[in-house]
Amino acid sequence: MVLCSFHLIALKAGNTAPIFLSALRKAGIKPIAQGLVLRWMILPQQISTGYLLSRNIHWDMVLILSEESDIPQSIRSTTIAAEWTAGVGTSSKLLANYASLNAELLNPALGTVPPLSLDLSAAARANSSQNLELTPELASFISALPAHIQSRPVSMLNLLSFNEGKHADYVKYGQEFSARVGARYGGRVKIVGKVTKSGVVVAQQGEDVTKQQQQQEGWDEVAFVHYPSIAHFASMAADGDYQDVNHRYRLGALKDTFIISVVEVTADGEVVPEAKNKNKLKL
Q1: Which of 152, 162, 174, 246 is the most exposed place for a label (fewest CB within 10 A)?
Q2: Whole-prediction pTM value?
Q3: 59 CB-near residues (< 8 Å, 6+ apart)
Q4: CA–CA distance from 206 to each of 53, 77, 213, 225 (Å)?
Q5: pLDDT at 127 (0 to 100)
């Protein structure tokens, strides 16, 4: 097992992803992955809500760093308005293969992306996305996205907390997801691991170090999951087979969860180039 860290970052006014990532690059920091926050998909209900939600912070970026990397204090103080992190223990093999796998997923070969259609009548049957169901609001959000974002792959950052004695149910959910619906919509787990600590990072004035107010908040696992587009994710949520698996194994296993969708960007802060496949969204 190796350690890495997931960072939710809100940038100070006047800063952009290219500016922030350029500063990291000049400091010799090479993230495992970096992306722009597209939207909350599921909000946390019990854990970490005071900082993640109640302060009404607009989260701009998700950053994944190796154990050896940290954001220098000078960069934190000049570019970051708010930061929340989770330390994660994961497979060394997963991290070693991440760059090549991710490049393949973000730039799929012609014919490898599953065809897509999104049934708006399915959206009308759900009034909340908290149970990972398709809602009219989510369908409308996707419809309103610029075309160059609609067609791009997304990654879903999942934080998970399990009800006592229910972890095995979630393992079964993962197995059923892979066997029954994941491949149908291009879902692919890229990083999964156990949360070791999580919490707020506070930059201390006038010091060369940061004070990390981190603890065991109650999160158990993290999963970073790829989809060919946000519409593929929404179509999966509307699928009856998926909802059967979701209700049988996932919902009862979770004490709390949150999901944030991310559009990954290059080291220069640019959205990854358009995929070779042209999948028309039926919205």
Answers
A1: 174
A2: 0.91
A3: 8, 9, 10, 37, 82, 260
A4: 28, 10, 18, 39
A5: 77
